[in-house]
Amino acid sequence: MSIPLRSSGDTAMPMPHTAPLDSPHEVRQLSAQLLAIQEYERQRIAVDLHDGLGQSLSLIRFSLEEASRLMASGTHGEAGDTLRRLIPRVKNAISEVRRISMNLRPSTLDDLGILATLSWFFREFEEACRGIIVEKHFYVAETDVPAPLKLTIYRLLQEAVNNIVKHAGANWIRVGLDKADDAIHLSIEDNGQGFDPVEAGQRSGFNKGLGLLTMKERAILSGGTYTLESAKGHGTRIRVYWPAERMALVG
User: What does the domain layout of the chain look like in residue ranges?
Assistant: First the structure.
């Protein structure tokens, strides 16, 4: 059984991992991994389009062709029935477009802001993953978060939660977003199986964990400081904070 994470007042979990880039070799390795991430994302989007939207559109095309054939043969009643059966298929296609669009960039970020977007994201998540309890602690105002940082925060949370679902085996997640000492603080914790960050960092290729690498690079490129703490059997904690002077640069 998974062991819950310690509270914020307890001793920190072992093996914090920040892994700064100190050598040209590490920079080249990072560039190669980022290219691999881009290809992975393209592949994921292509699969979404082909398996989801592509199949829906194919069914709609076949139904339209059948309705056209029936109308040409004079069986207008059957043609009307075929067209009526198209309605749920068209609705499914519209839902699929919205899902893919929201995954690429939620429109609520621009229209309503980060807090509304996170509320929507976790409503969807809790509906899909009923076996995982989510504790949310959001103590920021919408105006506290610079506009460019809102997408970064959303992507970090999206990737972290996806990793938890795929790999952690957790049944509890705690997410925190607050402002203290003129800095924005983001934290994501789970009570899953955890892992050894040093061991994970020594893996090569896709086994190295592109999700974790993506989160770290997003945090660094946006001016944040990224910390990962994990240990086998003790869950995982990710923390990112953005000081005011760095937020001024991204804002």
Answer: 16-22+112-250
Buried b (16+ CB within 10 A) or exposed e, 91-121: ebbeebeeeeebeeebebbeeebbbebbeeb
DSSP 202: T
Query: 132 near 170, Cβ under 8 Å?
Result: yes
Instruction: Give the CATH architecture of domain 16-22+112-250.
Output: 2-Layer Sandwich (3.30)
Number of other residues whose CB lies within 10 A of the CB of residue 215:
24
Residue pLDDT, tens place only, 182-221: 899 999 999 999 888 777 665 554 445 567 778 888 888 8
Centroid of chain to Cα 28: 26
Q: Which helix (H) or strand (E) holds 174?
A: strand 172-180
Residue 167: which residues within 8 A CB-CB, separation 6 or more? Answer: 192, 195
> How large is the average pLDDT for residues 86-97?
84
218-233 pLDDT tens trace = 888 888 999 999 889 8
pTM attached to this predicted model = 0.66
